[in-house]
Amino acid sequence: MTSRRDSIKNSAVATGRGDDGTTGLLFGGRISKADPRTEAYGTVDETVAALGIARVELTDNGLSDLASLILHLQRELFVVGAELATNPEHADRLVDGTTRVSEQMLASVEAELARWESMVIMPREFIIPGETRASAALEVARSVLRRAERRIVALSASQAFGEWLLPYVNRVADLLWVLARAAEQAEHVAPTKLHG
User: Fold this and answer.
1) Could you read off the pLDDT of 99-145 as tens digits, one per residue?
2) Cβ–Cβ under 8 Å, residues 185 and 117
3) What is the CATH number of the domain that holds 62?
4) Which of 103, 121, 137, 144 is the most exposed place for a label (fewest CB within 10 A)?
């Protein structure tokens, strides 16, 4: 009879090492799955997944330029996750743009934000998400990323990160809000205002 341990040995995914409630860090070390660091990079991972839904919706609606940008942001958010998931003792092993957020990444997202802001009509009051499937998906991703940002701020009280990580996350969340408006306008739908 095959034991549970034997079946894990044959799995390409399950290792069993996390059965004790810990998870591995990049470049070694283990921490609790309830650790604030795990919560921070796990929430970034949720953002990447939520952006996957947005990308499918954008692709299905023929908005390939927006979908391509979302894919780029998903890839860059893996860099955010890598930096957050790194054992602080090995921060010297991080590489800008690959495992650590770089100044160039921030500059690039700021340029995208300026470009898209110049192409959309910006609402002058609070709006209620949900006019299109694509814009709603972008709003979900934005709100999850804002939660990640709060987790990162809380974590930064006790642990240091590169200087570009938090501004980058903040700017991407801003960009996602603008892209949600761009998705609505591409489908010729006006946002619902808070006070209609």
Assistant:
1) 999 999 999 999 999 999 999 998 888 888 888 999 999 999 999 99
2) no
3) 1.20.1200.10
4) 121
Say whether pLDDT at 38 is over 60. yes
pTM above 0.85, yes or no: yes
Stated as kind and residue range, the H or E segment containing 53 is helix 36-60
Q: Please, are residues 154 and 38 in contact by the beta-carbon 8 Å criterion?
A: no
Is 94 domain-assigned?
yes
Compute the distance between CA of residue 176 and CA of residue 93 in angstroms, rounded to an integer.
Answer: 30
Q: Evaluate whether 172 touches 73 at the Cβ level (below 8 Å).
A: yes
CB under 8 Å to 55, separation ≥6 — which residues?
Answer: 67, 70, 71, 74
pLDDT score at 50: 98
- Residue written as token pair 């709603």: 136
Task: Tell me: pLDDT of 3 over 60.
Answer: no
Number of domains within the chain: 1
Q: How many whole angstroms separate alpha carbon 108 and alpha carbon 172? A: 10
Residue whose token pair is 């930064």: 156
Query: Which range of residues forms the domain containing residue 98?
Result: 31-193
- Does 13 fall in a domain? no
- What does DSSP assign to residue 35? S
Judge whether 71 lies within some domain. Answer: yes
Residues 6+ apart with CB under 8 A from 34: 21
Max intra-chain CA distance, the chain: 67
Mean pLDDT of 20-26: 72
